[in-house]
Amino acid sequence: MKSKKAPASDVEDPAPEVSKKQRKRSARAAEKALELIEEVEEAQETVAEHVSAEAGTLAALLQVGPQFQLQDVDPRSTPGFAGTKKEGKAALAAGVEPMSELQERLFAEGLSGGERSVLLVVQGMDTSGKGGILRHVIGSVDPQGVSLTSFKAPTSEERAKGFLWRIRAALPEPGHIGVFDRSHYEDVLIARVGKLVPAATVQRRYASINTFERRLVDSDTTIVKVMLHISSDEQKSRLAERLDRPDKYWKFNPGDVDQRLLWDEYQQAYQIALTRCSTQRAPWHVVPADRKWYARWAVQQLLIDALNGLAPQWPVADYGIEEQKARLVAT
Amino acid sequence: MKSKKAPASDVEDPAPEVSKKQRKRSARAAEKALELIEEVEEAQETVAEHVSAEAGTLAALLQVGPQFQLQDVDPRSTPGFAGTKKEGKAALAAGVEPMSELQERLFAEGLSGGERSVLLVVQGMDTSGKGGILRHVIGSVDPQGVSLTSFKAPTSEERAKGFLWRIRAALPEPGHIGVFDRSHYEDVLIARVGKLVPAATVQRRYASINTFERRLVDSDTTIVKVMLHISSDEQKSRLAERLDRPDKYWKFNPGDVDQRLLWDEYQQAYQIALTRCSTQRAPWHVVPADRKWYARWAVQQLLIDALNGLAPQWPVADYGIEEQKARLVAT
Asked: Rounded to an integer, what is the distance from CA B63 to the centroid of its chain?
């Protein structure tokens, strides 16, 4: 088979008109960018090595145990990270490459018959930074391997089906990282605070969630649950910013202020949900989130730890490599 | 309302043990990374300004017109770009920020009652780089605003429903960028070459597609259709690479060689589909794709052009700003 490389005929010369001088300047700039990127990456790795907790230790620091009290967690603290905002950003950047490779291996495994997947559940009050996690942590891996669901108030069809129905429908396929922006936990949070269902129903749901999650783990889904924990003051200032900047007006909703008036009730509902539903197989992690850069780094590390725990390997070929090489050469 | 900032009590000091010297080294490295990133971005912009076609001109260069002949397009050419691979990578990086902002504006518009959306349709032979477009172009915008669908062979349920059924189900919501990795065009490509349906059915489908796409455009979806055009030789070398690298075995499928034997038939099927279904409202673009870096840059520019054409604006507030500020202060 011959390749087709005939020159474009009826198309005008498509290259923009560029002088020799411009070409040179551009070539030098491109060269410089590549060199500097290497230096940047080295610097970022230096930061990550120096001020972040050892791999695998963060989950234990943030995990919700039996004695857990949400009010004892300082939303401005940075457990497992001894650096500043600038260092946090560098450490986050240093984590992109390892996370991407692990994700690609998991994806490859899924395409090759593997059943394993990861589910990241992200909860938090309004303005706690859920969107930033999606953008800055999840956004750095291949979108082909991610299934993201943002749960809004359930539709009447969904309400008719039992609260876990729409959750089941959104679970990640094998090899994927599923991400829930809000989740079935809203059914014991806003449902409780807003009295959307009878108290007895809320009570039953904690057990239903634990059973559901246990089965999910048994069917090879690793669940990473994170609550982004902000302070009331920080929420106030983030909402105020949305009212100050025309490029942020769309993020503000008058209902956010109504919800804010129920702050203490929500903290209490979180306290109950976090402790009742932090199980050994699917523990909750509370991530201090007044510092956005810390929360992003922490969630990235929790995901990297979870993926490292799975240790996905490149699949072996299920065909004869030499045979296929010979077939290919013959084409 | 008071913020809760009690110190963590029963949690051990979570900061890793870090010496003063380590702290200093890390702080310096973080500072350096940030400074260098600014320099990198400047250099990348210099490249983009110097060697790429003016905004808005690329679509015309790549567009399929009535006289179009696929065999006349050189897969190694780089229409609208006068630089090298290094410069191509720099120009792609320079496009991330403008594309992200346009995407966020479109997303905001969609959340505020706007109906507009963008649909990117990506077609191309095996190994033409569809996955790389998803990862390196689509992967750089906020995943919340993207709905990505990879179309595989239709299931029996899907086959029973008419070929556009599953396509309609995957259309982007208002404010979203929908991405089709393969699409309804497979129904006139593999369906034609593999004789999966009678010839008369294929014939009818071109018209159905044009009607479908016209209605889609009428309902405020901007369609950007790109065919990644590689040469047969390039495909051979990309398949060979997959057979040479254990981390790429999973990407190879013996069926790829079978499909390769039908190369000429596929080129012919593309020629027909491209010319019959390149309409004024939803034109096809053929992107030379033997150079991955060029194809990625070109698709990014086509998307930026499409988004610029929509010129999405930050939504105005549909609430009283001063009133809400007062409510917030009172909390």
From this structure: 17
Task: Return the ∠ at Cα A68 (arms to A63 and A73), rounded to 5°.
Answer: 80
Helices B85-111 and B20-51 cross at an angle (nearest 10°) of 90
pTM, full prediction: 0.94
User: Which amino acid does the sequence have at B326?
Assistant: A
Return the residue matching tokens 């950007």. Answer: B224
The C-alpha atoms of residue B19 and residue A50 are separated, in whole angstroms, by 9
Q: How far is B152 from chain A (nearest CA, A)?
A: 12
Lowest mean pLDDT among A2-11, B53-62, B176-185: A2-11
CA distances from B173 to A66, A194, B115, B168 (A): 43, 29, 8, 11
B68-90 residue pLDDT tens: 999 999 999 999 999 999 999 99
| Chain A residues lying within 8 Å of B139, measured CB to CB | 139-143
**Contact (CB<8Å) B250/A22:** no
In which region does residue A124 sit, left (phi positive, over 0), alpha (psi from -120 to 50) or beta (all else)?
A: left
Distance CA B80, CA B77 (A): 10
Burial (0-12, 13-18, 19+ Cβ within 10 Å), A312: buried
List, in sequence order, every residue forming a beta bridge with A148; answer none if it has no partner: A179
Closest by Cβ to B71, choosing from A6, A23, A93: A6
Q: Is B77 on the interface with A (CB under 8 A)?
A: yes
User: Alpha-carbon distance A208 to A193, whole Å?
Assistant: 19
| Cα of B58 to nearest chain A Cα, Å | 9
**Token pair of A136 as six digits:** 């800055």
Q: Which residue of A has its CA nearest to B112?
A: A250
Model pLDDT for residues B257-291, shown as the tens digit of each residue: 999 999 999 999 999 999 999 999 999 999 999 99
Domain spans in chain B, listed from the N-terminal domain onward:
32-310
ipTM of model? 0.93
What percent of chain B is predicted at pLDDT more than 90? 91
B285 neighbors B224 (Cβ within 8 angstroms): yes
The verdict on domain B32-310 having CATH code 3.40.50.850 is no
Beta-carbon separation of A46 and B26 below 8 A: yes
Question: Is the Cβ of A232 closer than 8 Å to some Cβ of chain B?
Answer: yes
**Residues from chain B contacting residue A46 (CB–CB below 8 Å):** 25-26, 29
Given CB atoms, is A75 within the 8 Å cutoff of chain B? yes
The A residues from 137 to 196 touching B (CB cutoff 8 Å) are 138-144, 146, 148, 150, 181
